[in-house]
């Protein structure tokens, strides 16, 4: 029998039928792959790595379903005792596994799971509407999620809507309607298509289906609503809320005379270049330095960025200023102060160059905190006034300038619960995840 098989195989492999030989080899390879894949799947059930499931990164399909959770009748709504009772009644989450009770990582995972479930519950109770992505509209969606989670701005828009009702101007009306719709659809999603169409009349750039800058959309929308309300009703409430003033002070090194210029801002641009040395480099060397920094994970803090922005700057050698007091060209120093800061502070981390030919993105990691104190950067210290801000929203950009994706983190208006808004998908997010994100826009609000 064995001899017969050997003879048959020899016949086949004697190149009389090379195509049969190829097919047989292919089948053997496929079978091997299937066996290996099966073994891997089976071993995952007991692999310790599976116990490292991060429940906070678990995302619900379409952002509208919740994990199947049911409480026992005796379980209280909150508290540590509630947690243990609560976890014991959690049914199998999609993708979750039965974990050994003695695993050290279990307690951490359980905590994360509790946090995740509590956030889902809060979302069910109080809202979290996704926005559908229509033709590269993630830049719009992220900006809008950011804006509608600013409490003071939302309050103003809703009061304006109530005040002017049917006579509300087009863009403000479209935004107010979207805001109302999002509030009424806490477990679903909607689209911002009508608002985009309205805003396209102000900026043609938004009329195409191309990806655009989320920051530009955000500031264009705010300015458009401000202009509409000022032109039609002399209503400056958006201006009072969101515009600040930065003062540049030029000081003569000889007579110490000062002159200043005030400039209004809706958004404060923050340079995130790592060092002056890096910025003075050029071409390939600068790119290499940037790559190296990104590779080794170098970062800069937001506080450092502010310190640099408001530090004293000696103007370059050869740059002279005509001093009206000395009546001659003199050397000067230049400093910036915040003359007035708005209640809502928008910070744009300058990751993109204004030069259209420069498509490199500054990928410096910027560390930031939930609290931001601006007192030391103010021109005047009014003790009665607090300069302490709280982070309320973050727009994140991932990828490159030509091929990227925008998402947003935002804190719920009624609680401390953060959510990640990835177009129509909405998922709970931990505080740590927010602070370690690749932020592009930060929104702080003074309470
Ligand atoms: Zn002078």
From TrEMBL:
Keywords: Hydrolase, Membrane, Protease, Thiol protease, Transmembrane, Transmembrane helix, Ubl conjugation pathway. It comes from the Eukaryota. One of its GO terms (molecular function) is cysteine-type deubiquitinase activity. The keyword ATP-binding does not apply. It catalyses: Thiol-dependent hydrolysis of ester, thioester, amide, peptide and isopeptide bonds formed by the C-terminal Gly of ubiquitin (a 76-residue protein attached to proteins as an intracellular targeting signal). Residues 129-447 form the USP domain. Belongs to the peptidase C19 family. This is Ubiquitin carboxyl-terminal hydrolase. It comes from Adineta ricciae. The lineage of its organism: Eukaryota, Metazoa, Spiralia, Gnathifera, Rotifera.
